[in-house]
Write a structure and sequence with these properties.
9 helices; alpha/beta; eight-stranded parallel β-barrel; two-stranded antiparallel ribbon; TIM Barrel
Length: 267
């Protein structure tokens, strides 16, 4: 465990992240900028604008994280996906920087069936080198896909070799999702050490239980203690990582408070 209290928070609506953090007694929050399923119209849904959100968060002492749209896949060999993905990723980095976000979380992406994953890692290398990283990006491990760039520890190692060689690599971090790791087939026991041996860092933990069995490949979060991931090892990841923790569990405000309290009671 860390010597200082862990920062805890939740994924919340972008309309007022600061108020949402305060309602959950949270030190940090994560939110989208725009529609997570869309390529266009990526504008912050905060009535007073990005500068006002940055000021409000700073005054309240709330740390902000932004989750990039799910459609982004900079690893793709398809120009119609890869090129718009790079453009949208840059737009999101810029927008996250405008609100003073600590980081922009982005999924590792994938290549198509039968394609060489090494091409995907090369595309990540090119993408990092072409970004203006005014805000750090945190690459997140993913739950499924035979050709995913960040599903297994072995694939994360290949990805990290690629991004570490790129210009701007010092602005690239790692986000570890417990549900995704469980669903990917990785053992949560000892996972932090295996990841840190590769990346040298874990910048954020997504603490989620999993609806489905280990190795299912299904990205379906469950509330903490109510899914099929071992709760002891979820807590092991949280304590050993010593990084800020965001829950992405669904439900009401009371549900999220209960999940945050589930962690607090075990720290």
């Amino acid at each position: 465990m860390t010597s200082q209290p862990l920062e805890l928070g939740a994924h919340v609506d972008q309309s007022d992240p600061v108020a949402a953090a305060q309602a959950r007694d949270a030190q940090i929050v994560q939110h989208f900028i725009g529609d997570p399923q869309a390529w266009k119209g990526q504008k912050l849904d905060y009535p007073s604008g990005p500068a006002a959100l940055k000021e409000a968060a700073e005054q309240a002492g709330i740390g902000l994280y932004v989750h990039a749209p799910y459609v982004i896949n900079v690893a793709s060999t398809n120009n119609r996906i890869r090129i718009p993905s790079r453009k949208l990723l840059q737009q999101q980095v810029t927008a996250a920087a405008e609100i003073g976000a600590r980081g922009l979380i982005v999924h590792g992406g994938h290549v198509g069936a039968g394609e060489d994953p090494l091409v995907g890692y090369e595309n990540w290398y090119k993408a990092i080198g072409g970004l203006r990283l005014d805000c750090p990006i945190l690459i997140e491990n993913t739950a499924g896909g035979a050709n995913a760039m960040a599903r297994t520890v072995e694939s994360i190692e290949l990805l990290w070799q690629a991004v570490s060689a790129a210009s701007g690599a010092e602005q690239v971090g790692f986000c570890l999702d417990t549900c995704h790791a469980h669903a990917s087939g990785e053992e949560l026991d000892g996972l932090v050490g295996r990841i840190r041996a590769i990346t040298g860092r874990i910048d954020l933990v997504h603490a989620n239980d999993s609806r489905d069995p280990q190795g299912s490949g299904a990205d379906r979060h469950a509330r903490l203690g109510r899914g099929q991931a071992d709760p002891e090892f979820i807590m092991q990841v949280i304590t050993e990582a010593g990084a800020p923790v965001i829950i992405e569990t669904h439900g009401s405000l009371d549900d999220q408070i209960a999940d945050l309290n589930w962690i607090r009671a075990r720290l």
